[in-house]
């Protein structure tokens, strides 16, 4: 093969572009708080990118710059596809996106979940992504209903005891 058609590594690090992060196939529903978090994350990433670019061709800045640029592309795509779901004017008649849901499990242990968008989800804080099995089990249920939540170790019944705004 003619050398003109091959690319040789000259040893320079140069800027790199990381593959984009996967985007969920689900509709990108967001709460007002989730939308604010996406905007704040975009601003923080833009600031970080500017800081890293100011370092020039410093080899230690190249990979973090590529990561920040990739993350910003993801956040910008999520902002572009965001569908803001405002809470209803009155009370929630049933579990809907954005609702805070108080439940009791089969043993009477209480738990509280808020149905949010995927980027806002944080299960440790009770923020559950709408496409998750738990959220799907809760959605459309009313106070007093018992729903079945499929888990890897078996089905769990949850009684809805309250539904309210965040």
From TrEMBL:
Q: Where is the Transcription elongation factor GreA/GreB C-terminal domain?
A: 94-164
Enumerate composition-biased segments (Basic and acidic residues).
1-10
Output the Gene3D superfamilies linked to this UniProt entry. Transcription elongation factor, GreA/GreB, C-terminal domain (3.10.50.30)
Which Pfam families does the entry link to? GreA_GreB (PF01272)
Residue ranges of coiled coil: 35-62
Q: Does the keyword Coiled coil apply?
A: yes
Entry keyword set: Coiled coil, Elongation factor, Protein biosynthesis
Molecular function as annotated in GO? translation elongation factor activity
Instruction: Write out the ranges of the annotated region (Disordered).
Output: 1-33
- Keyword flag Transferase: no
Q: What is this protein called?
A: GreA/GreB family elongation factor
Q: What organism does the record attribute this protein to? A: Roseovarius aquimarinus
